[in-house]
Amino acid sequence: MTDVVEEVVLEKEVPKESAFIALSDKEEINWAHTAILVVPPVLALIGLLTTPLRWPTFVLAVVMYFWTGLGITAGYHRLWSHRAYSARFPVRLALVLGGAAAFEGSAKWWCRNHRAHHRYTDTDKDPYNARRGFFYAHLGWMLVKQNAKGIGYADITDLNRDPMIQWQHKNYSVISIAVGIVLPTLLAACWGDIWGGYFYAAMMRMVFVHHATFFVNSLAHTLGDKTFSDHHTAFDSVITAVLTLGEGYHNYHHEFPQDYRNGIRYFHYDPTKWLIGMLASFGLTYNLKTISKPEIEKARLQMQQRRVDSEKAKLESASATTTCPR
C-alpha cells in the first residue's frame, strides 16, 4: 500500500489559451479611451518621420516624462492610492498636475480602480485582472466601457474629502490638456521648435508614460520572482522596475502595499522611492511608512519554506509510485 502525497501548489496556473483574450462579447468599446491610446502613437510616428529631434526638445521630453511618470507612481499610486506617505501642498500640487498630464484619468478614478485591484487581485472584480491575459491587463481593460457594478468595492471616502483631488477630478480635461500638451508645446516654441515640442515632449512622451505605467498591470504580473508570496500573480523583476520608474518589485508591493518603497534594498532601482526620500530630507514629505525588517524576512522565509515543501512533496510522490525491485 502506498501513501498518497498531496502536492503543494505554488500558484494557480493561468490557462495558456487565455494569454491573448482581451474582450468578451458583452463588453462595449470605450471610444474615448481607445482614441487616447491610439491617436498619440500615430502622431508620435508622424513627428518621428517629419520633424528632427532637437537637443533642447529631447531634454524637455525627458523632464516631462519623469514629471508625469512620477505624478502617477509617487502621486496617484503611493501617495493617494496607498497613503504610504504624506506630502506638503507644493509636492501634492506638482504630483496632481503631473498625474493629470500623463493622460491616465483623474486621481480619483485611477485610485478607485487601483484599490479595487489590490483588494480583489486576480479575480473578476479586479479591474485589470491579469488572469484574463497580458493584453487585457496592459490596456485591453481600458478599451471597453467599465462595468461599475462588476468591479469590486473600494472605499474612496478620503479622496472625496480631499479638495485638491476633487478639484483635479472636476477639471481633469482642462488640466491634462493644458499641462500635458499645451505647456511642452509652448516651451519648445521658445527655441523655435513648436512642432518638436508637440510631437516629442507631448505625444511621444505620453506614449512612453502610458506603457511604462501599463507594464505594472501586465509585465509585473507576468515576469520575475515570487519572493514574498505566491498567493497572487505579482512578481519582482528589475527589468520591470527599470521600465516603470521603480514599480517592478511588485511581489513585495502586493504583500506590503503600505510601504512607501517598492525596491527595499539600497541597490534596487526605484526612482520613485528616491524622490520621496529626498523630499523628506527637506521636510516636503513625511510619515513615510515602512515594513520592519523582521516582518519582511518572515515573509521571505515563509515563501522559501513553501518552495521546499513543494519540492519535498514532489519527491515523496515520485518515491511512492516507484516500484522497488525485490
Distance between the termini: 16 Å
**Radius of gyration over alpha carbons?**
22 Å
Number of helices: 13
Fraction of residues in β-strands: under 5%
- Widest sheet: strand ordering: 1-2
Number of strands: 2
Description:
This protein has 326 residues and is mostly helical. The chain has one domain. The chain has helices at residues 31-50, 55-81, 89-101, 107-119, 134-138, 157-160, 163-170, 172-189, 194-217, 238-243, 250-255, 271-281, 293-320, and strands at residues 86-87, 285-286. Strands 1-2 form a two-stranded antiparallel sheet.
Layout of helices and strands:
Elements: H1 31-50, H2 55-81, E1 86-87, H3 89-101, H4 107-119, H5 134-138, H6 157-160, H7 163-170, H8 172-189, H9 194-217, H10 238-243, H11 250-255, H12 271-281, E2 285-286, H13 293-320
Antiparallel strand pairs: 1-2
Helix pairs in contact: 1-9, 2-3, 2-4, 2-8, 2-9, 3-8, 8-9
What key attributes describe this structure?
globular; 326 residues; mainly alpha; disordered N terminus; single chain; two-stranded antiparallel sheet; 56% helix; 13 helices
